[in-house]
Amino acid sequence: MRSSIEIYNIRTRQSRVVWQTEKLFEAPNWSPDGDYLMLNADGLIYRLSPHGDGEPQKVDTGFATLCNNDHGISPDGTLIAVSDKVEFDKSAIYVLPAEGGSPKLVTENLPSYWHGWSPDGKTFAYCGIRDQVFDIYTIGIDGASETRLTFGEGRNDGRDYSPDGKWIYFNSSRTGMMQIWRVPAAGGVAERITNSIYGDWFPHPSPKGDKIVFVSYDADVFDHPRDQNVRVRLMDADGGNVETLFDLFGGQGTMNSPNWSRDGDEFAYVRYFPAA
């Protein structure tokens, strides 16, 4: 096996395997109605039942056939966002019907990597790289009004909205090591959330607003590479009560994008096995 798509329940503290494959699958999103997980593999987007009762089904993404693991589903379940580089040879964010269809360009400034959908469904949060500077931006899903929220204070990446829409959580290297921060979605001063011995990445707030799940790398690991011994951790929304839920072989692809179930009791992730 190469990829094991799994679900962890934070109440029972147990995990279950949904599906395993020899292929490299990444970044499960959970549909708002709970009917499917959305993942990427080989540049394409797939749906997979979270109940372990079927094979992945490919979603028609039109010309967008070089999708990366920065993708997600709208709060009402009618649209999906993908990040793809076919059209410009750089990652651009597109929106299309959830059942598949023609992608519509959202971001003209490139490269841009999608990461979060506002609770009202009107705005994206994403990482934009401009002149080699990684920062957090928001934009209307119609492509209007790109707004910059961070300003080159180290590398800023891995953003996701709080369920009330007030905060955008992200990871930043501004203190030397990647840690979790949050910034008001309307703009303002960023607050540090973690102060750990690890490199913390990809914070995802629970739909209940009480918990954040994230991935932590060893301190000497740069960036967010694949095939590392990492730990999945949980904390309160303000950074309190940090705990390690489990260790796994993973990293890149494990949970780059929003991955909670709608009730906030479970989250999906990918565990990897060493490449042959």
Q: Could you outline the blueprint of secondary structure elements for this entry?
A:
Elements: E1 3-9, E2 14-21, E3 26-30, E4 37-41, E5 44-48, E6 57-59, E7 72-73, E8 79-84, E9 92-97, E10 104-105, E11 112-117, E12 123-130, E13 133-140, E14 147-148, E15 156-161, E16 167-172, E17 179-184, E18 191-192, E19 199-205, E20 211-217, E21 228-236, E22 243-250, E23 266-272
Antiparallel strand pairs: 1-2, 1-23, 3-4, 4-5, 5-6, 7-8, 8-9, 9-10, 11-12, 12-13, 13-14, 15-16, 16-17, 17-18, 19-20, 20-21, 21-22
Structure in a nutshell:
The chain is mostly beta strands and 276 residues long. The chain has strands at residues 3-9, 14-21, 26-30, 37-41, 44-48, 57-59, 72-73, 79-84, 92-97, 104-105, 112-117, 123-130, 133-140, 147-148, 156-161, 167-172, 179-184, 191-192, 199-205, 211-217, 228-236, 243-250, 266-272. The chain contains no helices and 23 strands.
